[in-house]
Structure formats: C-alpha cells, structure tokens
Amino acid sequence: MPTAQSTATAVPHVNEVPFEAKDDRLSYMIGSLVDGFESSLLRHMPGGPYRDFYLWSLSYDNPRREAYLLLVGLVQFAKMTQILLDGLVDDSDWEALIERSIAMNAYLVYETVSDNLAIGLRTLLPTDRTFQLRKNLVYAFNNAMLKRLNGDRRPAAALLEVVQPGAHRVSSYEHSLSRAKHIDLVRTYLGQYPNLSYRELEYSTWPMLVANIEACLDMMRSIRTFRGAAIVQDGLVKRYQAVNKLLKAGDMTLSQLANIGTYSILVMPTLAYYIVVLTEIIRPQPRIAELIDNGSLSEALYDAALLLRLLNDLGTDLCMLSNEGQARLLERLRDWHVSHPQAEDMTFDLLLVVDSEASLLTRLHKDVMFGEFNVSLYGLSDATSMLDAVTTFGRNIKYFSQLYTHHYAHLLEKLEVIDAHLHDSTVSKLILRFVKFHEKMYATSFHSNDGDYAV
Is residue 33 exposed (0-12), middle (13-18) or buried (19+ Cβ within 10 Å)? Predict the structure, then answer.
C-alpha cells in the first residue's frame, strides 16, 4: 500500500522544466494544477486509504492517469483557465497567473466531486436508499462551509465529525455522472494493492468533504488582503445558502427560481477571484476599487452567472431558440404524447423524444437522467396531464430564453461602463470569454469530455 510520501515523490513534476522552455502552455498549466492538487490533498485531506488512492491516481503508477485527470476535471479546469486568461497579461506574468490559479482550480475540483452528492436529490426514486442520508449530508456540508466562511475557526474535520458515520454509508460514485469510469479506476488500483477493500475506497465521501472546505478557505486566504475578496466571500456564502434553499424550497416564481439558481453556482466567486488576481495582484488598477464599492462589478458578475445558469440548464441552442423554433418544438412534443397515450411522466419521456431533438435537449436529458436541478423542468411534475406538462415546459423555455436575451444585453452594457471607467478591457474580456466559453461547451453533448464541467 502506498504511503502519502511515497506516492507524492513518485509523481514526475512537470514544472521542474523552466516555463520559458515550455512550448505548450496548457501542458505546463495542467502540470502545475496536478502538482498543486497533490499538495492540497496532502495538506487538507485526512490521511487514510482514500487519500492514498487519490495520490496514486495522480501519479504515473496509474496506467489510466490521463483518463483520470479528465475524469475529475483537472484537464478541463486547466483548459478553461488558459482560454479565459490567455492574452490578458504579458508572457512574463504567466507563471504568476498560473500559480494563482491553482488554489481556485483545486477547490473547484473538490467541488465537482462533492456536488455528486446532490445528484438525484430533485426527485426521490424508489431505488434510492440513501436519499435522505445524502440530503442530510449535503445540508451538513453546506452549513459547515458557511460556518468556516463566517469566521468559525474549528477545522472542517471537527465540524463534520457528527456526520462521519453516515458519510461512510454513501457511495462516492453511485451518483456520479461517470460511475463506471470511477469503478474501473478503483479496480485497477486494487489490482496493484489487493489487500485493500473496494468498499473503503468507494464509501469515502467524508475525507473529500473535509478537504473541500479546507481548500475553499485556503483559496480565500490567498486573497484576503485585497479589496475584491469581499465579492468572492459574498459569492461563496450565497452559493451554499442557495443550494440549501433549493433542497428544501417549496413553490417559487420563475424569477425567484432563476435568482436562487444563479447564486447556487460558483460563477460569481470564480470570476471575482480572477479579477482580484488580474487587477489587484498582477497588474494593479486602483480604479477597480470604485467598481467594487458602487456595485457595478457585482452587477456584471450576476448577469454572467445568470447566463451560465440558463446555459447549464437549457443548453445553448434552447436558450437562443426563436419563438418559431419554440413553437415547432412544443408541437412535436404534443404530437409525440398524443401518439404515446401510455406515457405518464413528461420529464422522463423527454428522453424518448425523436433523435432530431437530441442536440437541442441534451442538457435536459442529462438532468432528467441524473435527477438534477433544472429551471426549465420546474413544475412539470405537478402537471395534471401530459398536454398540461408540455404547456408548462413551453412557458418555462419562453421565459428563460427571454431572460437570457435580456441579461445578455444588460451584461454588454455594464461591460462598456467597466471598460470606460478602467480605461482597460481586461475585466470585460474575462467575463465575456467566460460566457462564450460555456456557450460553446453547452452546445455539446454532455457525454463528451468537454461537455460537462461547470462552476
């Protein structure tokens, strides 16, 4: 069985090669993030079989290492960071920029794993024996994170101690979007270390939750002395509060749903973090302080986050579908249900819609399959008939596509104001690139490597 130390030293460090000698900036960034994530595991995750497994997975002892780096999002987050930040700083500042990106991206990798706990909590399925247990665990995790963000100095392990026994009854992979790939990786590991048990690796949610909280606080400590840290902090607090609200929310208007959904994702704190790095650390711009204080920056970040929420849920094509296109889609749905009178639940029957709609409905298919929150599906389960469900769905996509158009225009207006105030387009380029990046990604099937990693 590998120890933390032996596994760590077995990982070849890509970053031992000088930055100037690297032709491939993405490879350098991936190597930096892998090294940084390994360091985070050693500092933040409680020691034990699960940490050893994680460290092995990052090492070249793992014959599936490249697939693993994709599986947990390390490659995708590095690629996203490169696309977002390329050209926004001089080449001489790239090393510092990459170094600053590690804390945020390591935290986002942990979040991706922790988010799997909430998959399937939208609807209680008869086969889901851990529904209430996972729901309690997500609440406990969110509340522990909020306590730490609000100044509680107790370590995450102490705050989560009460849920540790229950956490050991929850699979780390059962509700993952890539369960089979995780299981194959564990089996590969056990082939090298047969004295370990499969169960102690699959049922190891608790160490990941502990590391997630500590990594978040580590990221906040890295910028705590800067003005924009307040926006990052506020975005994080609202994120965990919003997730709790979604788990227990009753009836809401579509406007309320969009607002809570916007805060439940990590767009605002992620973008705010990089704005701090760009405008207060690497190339200080004193005029950013006024945009922070008067709320202009927060307004632009909210618009971007709302656009991302809608792109994540509806998909790019559905967000931008014309009124005529919406009408044709609804007519096809009505026709399908008329010809399939045995259908009982439209949210699941969306999976069976004709192949011509596969790309248009790819985001909905994913969320129906995995029981995830999706604003466009709100209210369908309360419909009194299949045709009523189609009408509700039509109302939803009309409202949210109009909301997308409105907030896109508003974002562009705010970015012009920010450019004029700063006499610089760095901030607006970053925000707009973020939206464009996800527009492209969410036009792709979620089955692809680049089709589903979001903040």
Answer: buried
